Amino acid sequence: MAGHQDESLDVLRLLSQLYLRHGRQDSALALLRALCALEPGDRRASLALAYAATRAGQPRESERVIDRMRDEGEPSPVLDLLQGQALAAQGRHGEAEQAFETFIARRADEQRMSRDAR
């Protein structure tokens, strides 16, 4: 039975990505909401949901997803980028600029740490 559920979740992931690529953000958003409800720990689905929500005109939903991921300990600079996009979509340009600057700084730190680890 678990195998069928895994296949169903994979289909939801695939369809949501196809919808996003072809400009059907509302459809992608609906699928990603379902996927995140079924698999709340799916990091990639949560990131895709935050992205799709902003693209579908729901930037506050995107912020809620980002806040939840941060509360769960997600350190990714990608969250700063997604937050900047959500803030910009709401006309909160000063806050968006700050989020983008944080993204750039964290990205640079990651790249520096990656180079140093070699």
UniProtKB/TrEMBL annotation:
Q: Which residues form a coiled coil?
A: none
The record, for InterPro entries, names:
TPR-4, TPR-like_helical_dom_sf
Domain of life of the organism encoding this protein: Bacteria
Extract the SUPFAM superfamilies matched here: TPR-like (SSF48452)
- Gene3D superfamilies named in the record: Tetratricopeptide repeat domain
Q: What is this protein called?
A: Tetratricopeptide repeat protein
- In its UniProt entry, the species of origin is given as Variovorax defluvii
